[in-house]
Design a protein that fits this description.
Length: 331
């Protein structure tokens, strides 16, 4: 083609060569693509491409270089170790050997030392969970209001119970290991005891673990977090109105009310000596309270976004916090 000069006259000079891109083939994947990379080593089958998908899967495809019309071949997939959606709950076993993670589709149990996924069990939409004493079972609360009990060794669900009419935001194990408490968006705090029951499908088998509802504490607002004191004599309840209320566990009588946060408390914990309670809130602050009189000892601007988790180091007054600003802090 002839080029035009600034004066509009035609220029007979040859234009610079340009690259033309021609579609070679189309590679279709099962989810939205996040990133990709070409393999530096070319194989006999063609060019290998590694793909990272939006659902946390890793796929490797081979594309034939000489035959554009041939379909790409998927040669490898890594899908089992990771979750397909956001992880909403994690928990560590009492012996520090295992930890679990829960998401919208499954509960996964991991080896804490090797970080290898050893169990994957289908579940509901997990929002919270704990290891049952003995570390052979995991108990989770779901968005649908169900309590689900899993046997780790058999990788099966033992029981699924409709425990609340709303999402279960928190579950806490009783210090004596004989029961637990749950808090839900249905404005109820429910207390449960563990029991051994016979399996209806196999009467000759040994009894399996189960749980039974014992008490209900009705609240005025949605319950976001519940925690026992180390001795089990008190239970702390964080509500949607940004307050924390503390009750005696034996009579369920009111003890203290903690005011001060501007937004709801998302997580809290009680120190091993039962003298301090620390609260983490969506207002980006962490507050330390005395459990004797409910006075606020200190208020800390902890994170640049909502503080989603807080936990004391056992036997100390040190604690960790996590936030939506992608930071874990040690205090």
């Amino acid at each position: 083609q002839k080029l035009e000069t600034k004066e509009g006259e035609e220029d007979s000079r040859t234009p610079d060569p340009t690259l033309e891109f021609v579609r070679h083939t189309t590679l279709r994947v099962t989810a939205r693509l996040r990133s990709f990379a070409f393999s530096p080593v070319r194989t006999k089958g063609g060019v290998q491409i590694a793909l990272v998908l939006n659902n946390n899967m890793l796929e490797v495809h081979t594309v034939a270089a000489e035959t554009p019309t041939s379909e790409p071949n998927r040669v490898a997939t890594i899908s089992l170790p990771g979750h397909r959606s956001d992880v909403r709950a994690v928990g560590l076993s009492s012996d520090d050997q295992l930890f679990f993670s829960g998401s919208s589709e499954s509960v996964k149990v991991w080896n804490a030392k090797t970080l290898v996924c050893i169990r994957t069990i289908e579940s509901g939409y997990v929002l919270c969970g704990v290891f049952v004493p003995g570390n052979h079972h995991v108990l989770v609360g779901t968005k649908e209001g169900n309590l689900e009990l899993f046997d780790i060794a058999a990788a099966t669900i033992l029981e699924r119970t409709q425990a609340h009419s709303g999402a279960i935001w928190s579950v806490a194990m009783r210090p004596d290991g004989r029961g637990f408490v749950t808090g839900s968006a249905d404005k109820e705090v429910r207390f449960w005891d563990f029991e051994l029951v016979e399996d209806p499908s196999n009467p000759n088998a040994t009894k399996r673990l189960s749980f039974i509802h014992t008490q209900t504490l009705q609240m005025s607002e949605d319950v976001l977090c519940v925690r026992y004191s180390p001795k089990g004599d008190l239970v702390a309840v964080a509500l949607l109105d940004s307050t924390v209320k503390i009750f005696f566990t034996d009579t369920l009588k009111f003890f203290l009310s903690l005011y001060g946060h501007k937004l709801p408390v998302l997580s809290m914990d009680i120190s091993s000596d039962a003298t301090l309670l620390v609260t983490a809130s969506a207002d980006k602050n962490v507050k330390i309270w005395g459990l004797d009189f409910g006075d606020c000892h200190k208020s800390l601007f902890a994170h640049q976004d909502s503080v989603t988790g807080v936990q004391f180091v056992p036997g100390t007054h040190y604690f960790f916090t996590t936030g939506k600003d992608h930071v874990v802090k040690y205090w």
